[in-house]
Amino acid sequence: MGWIIAIIVGGIIGWIASMIMSRDASMGIFWNIVVGVIGSFIGRFIGSLIGVGATLTEFSVPGLLMSLLGAVVLLGIVNLVQRGRVR
Fold first, then answer.
1. Which sequence ranges are marked TM in the entry (predicted)?
2. Does the reported pTM lie above 0.85?
3. CA–CA separation, 1 vs 50, rounded Å?
4. Lower CB density within 10 Å: C or N end of the chain?
């Protein structure tokens, strides 16, 4: 059941991040899920470095915000690679 929730939350986080980074039109639901899940790992790593939202077993608002931050960072990196600049 945890994987299903991770996919759903990852899709929502990826969708919100794609709207923030103005990439919503170029991404489908599959890529939203991928960006959300990978962004969650990036956000949890950043959070563990600064001590915010670093627990993997509990649901928390700081954890969601760090996941969103990680997804936005991931899309920023993708923008740099694809276009040579951040939008």
1. 6-22, 29-53, 59-81
2. no
3. 29
4. N
